[in-house]
Amino acid sequence: MRRRRLRIALLALPALAGSVLMATTPAGAVPTESAAPAGAGRSHLEDREAIRLVNIQLTGADMLDKVVAAGFDLEHGVRRVPTGIEGEAVVTAKQIAELKAMGVKILGDGESFAWSEKADGGFQSSGTRSDQPHGHEATVRVVRADWFTTKGQGFLYVEARTTEGQQAEPVVGMQLENDSGRGTSFGFARTMSRFVDSGQYMFHRNLFKLDKRPKQIRVTSSTGGVTTGDVSNWLEDAPPPLTANPRYKWDFVDGYKHPQQLFNRAKEIARQYPHIAEIVYLPNKTNGYQRKAQATIGGTGEAAVVVSSAAWGHQGGNDITVEFADRPGANLPLGVEVTGKAIRVLLAKDASGALASTAAQVAAALEGQSGGLVDRSHPYRTNAGTGIVAPTSSPVALTDFLDEKRVGAPEGEVPRGPATIPVLRIGKHRDGKKPGVLIQAQDHAREWVPATTTLETAERLVHNYTSDRETKNIVDNTDVFLILSNNPDGANYSFYNFASQRRNMTNHCPDANADPAQRNAWGVDLNRNYRVGSGHDGYAGGSTNCVSNNYQGPEELSEPESKNIIWLVEKYRNIKFMMSVHSNGGQLFWQPGAYIADGRITTPRPPLGDEAFYWQSAARILSQVKAHRETVVTPENVGGSSDVLYSSAGNVREDLYHTYGIYAFGWEVGGSVYNAETGDWQGGSFQPEWVGDPNLVSGHAETMEYSNGIMEMFRVAADWGKDKKDPTSRLLPGGGKYSKPVDVRFETNEPATIYYTTDGSRPTLKSPRYEATEFREPGEVFHVTRTTTFRWFSVDAAGNVENNYDPTKNDRREKYRTATITIKR
């Protein structure tokens, strides 16, 4: 009789209730304003304010939330330091003053936190106690100790945690020592830095440059606790990437691409390779690369009026002019004359012949008497509009500000109006039977490298299908969905108008923020617009401020771009993996992605088995990135995004994992690259020079190395789809008789989730899950003080159940595992 295999899909956790940065402008790209129609002027208020990049330091996550909510734009590459959070922002001179008033420290050029290499003198007086094993009584634990090399240099990264870490007075410190290899003594004492987020102690951590790889480390708490830990390799001995094969074709993308180029190439690929590729069109059109034509007339005081056209600028709004006219006489009523697209406001006069029309009155007249040309007119921002309007010296032109061009930008007219986003689907068997992988690039408009990385990946798949065995394995055994730009409206705006644009172009702002001087601050952050752990439910990292770069939208899934992602994963239920590709910062992360700041309450953490699968997959993906030119994404930048980066309420990864059970990664490509000549880490940027030093930051190098990583993610998915082998597990040290209480833990041969009981009942999917000791740590340790029987089974990431056990049925054969710990006093 053929053995029946049971593969269980782990139940998805239920959905929870309830910065303008321009790091590097492309060479020669200088924004310019277009000329106004002949015979018309333009208010100086529509001119751009000069912006510049500054380094800033914040006291912590709470201040970060306040700064983001206030509308300031911070880059993704923020980093945690013991003194708070450091990052970069693009700001005006006025905004610098506002940041200082909020308590933000503006750092000088090159000024930054530097890790201390000296031990805290306080340790000398505390003494050293005997080493403590990893167990229930340990006050100090090594979370991880990783050795890696880059550019010929060696580094040790350590995280350690103390059970007394939350103690505020006196602050508990930690000291790290390491040996110089097997058989050598501990030395080289260094102080570790305490990491606190939203008032909660996380752990102590440091990155050290070392000449030799240590075998072990020793960590000592200032309160006397001591523990040792083995050093592991991080991304060492990676297999060669596919590009190492001389016959393998790669390096297809020759520069940054705007959305039209990306979408046209996707359609061309589908036409060229119909046997393995097709286009899926997303049903919800974007709101469009279009705007109403506007002008602010009369300054910024109580007499100022903001005027917006009824028609889109390219559909006639840009042809409108508005003039405020004086007339001789007295006791004259306010009136409006319209000749074609020319609007002439006849200002009222009182009995003495003085002008008498207020800004509020003129705004109302324009809305009601412009013959439908004006859709929206109001006093400037929060003004009441009580000031008397002055006549204009000449007609003022309305414009949508979308007709400007950038020096160095690609040629060609940008299509106006709503856009339909194509998805390039690649796979030999596109029938829903193979595991689907969704790659989503450019949620954030200014992030140009993710789009080229995704396009390079598509080119590699189709060009190597018939000649490379590994590529053929990917295409034959996965179903790949590639969204080359999920924010085409914002991306076009970034290319042609304002390079630092992050969001889409939907303007949800009320009158207070709807004047054209705010036009570069409109739009929704698409990666804050989803349903799980959203800002609407009180999670940190999303903003209700419509001019914040983290604006979450008026409601969850308010935007067509986010609706499309949900449509795609609901229509194609075989999508089991997803990567949202961003830049810059060099992080690879997953859930939890958000937390409620008060108490740092995160969204549910993945089960230990899923967490282990994420880490295993990350090591494979990042090893292939490193294999290209030794770029290392360090362990501190891998894990739950709310742990390694910041809280990002309403992100797409959280929704897809918790709602649909999809293994959803987030990737900040373009991380720091070690400069062996200077001894510094060079940070990335959103739009680095395409061709630069091949060993440092460049758009081309990032595109190639991170495409290596995406190709490896496809191999992870292919392996997952072919995995039919049951996991195995055991209880350590195992069942038996013990003369005193004993510490026991579970171990699995691969990433797997363990369900167990200790009350004599049969284990099911509703039984307790074996959890981590703490986040980023291995499984918990049970301190058994009396005779206890453990019953359990394990389920791997592919849904295979250990020993073919069926936890959904009352199986009398009892294929679950069992072990009894007998304590004899």
Tell me the number of structural domains.
5
Task: From the alpha carbons, calculate the radius of gyration and give it in angstroms.
Answer: 30 Å
- In CATH, the architecture of the largest domain is 3-Layer(aba) Sandwich
What is the makeup of the main sheet? 8 strands, mixed
| Residue-averaged pLDDT | 88
What strand line-up does the widest sheet have? 11-10-7-8-9-6-5-12
Under CATH at level 1, the class of the largest domain stands as: Alpha Beta
Shape: globular
How large is the share of residues in beta strands?
A: 25-35%
Proportion of residues in helical segments: 10-25%
The CATH topology of the largest domain is what?
Answer: Aminopeptidase
CATH homologous superfamily designation of the largest domain? Zn peptidases
Helical stretch count? 13
Give a count of the beta strands, DSSP E runs of length 2 or more: 38
Low-confidence stretches: 1-39, 115-136
Signal peptide: 1-29
GO molecular function, one term: zinc ion binding
Protein name: Peptidase M14 domain-containing protein
Domain Peptidase M14: 376-710
What's the SSE blueprint?
Blueprint (H helix, E strand, L loop, with lengths): L51 E7 L2 H9 L9 E3 L2 E8 L1 H9 L3 E3 L14 H5 L13 E11 L2 E10 L11 E5 L8 E11 L2 E11 L5 E6 L4 E5 L1 E2 L25 H14 L4 E5 L10 E6 L7 E8 L8 E5 L9 E5 L2 E5 L12 H11 L4 E6 L16 E2 L24 E5 L9 E6 L7 H15 L5 H9 L1 E5 L4 H9 L63 H12 L3 E9 L3 E4 L4 E2 L4 E2 L5 H22 L8 E3 H4 L7 H9 L2 E7 L3 E3 L4 E3 L16 H24 L6 E4 L3 E3 L3 E7 L3 E6 L24 E3 L3 E9 L20 E7 L2
Parallel strand pairs: 5-12, 16-18, 22-23, 22-24, 24-29, 25-28, 33-38
Antiparallel strand pairs: 1-3, 1-4, 2-3, 5-6, 6-9, 7-8, 7-10, 8-9, 10-11, 13-21, 14-15, 15-19, 16-20, 17-18, 21-23, 25-29, 26-27, 30-31, 32-34, 34-36, 35-37, 37-38
Helix pairs in contact: 4-6, 6-13, 7-13, 10-13
Cofactor: Zn(2+)
GO molecular function: metallocarboxypeptidase activity; zinc ion binding
GO cellular component, one term: extracellular space
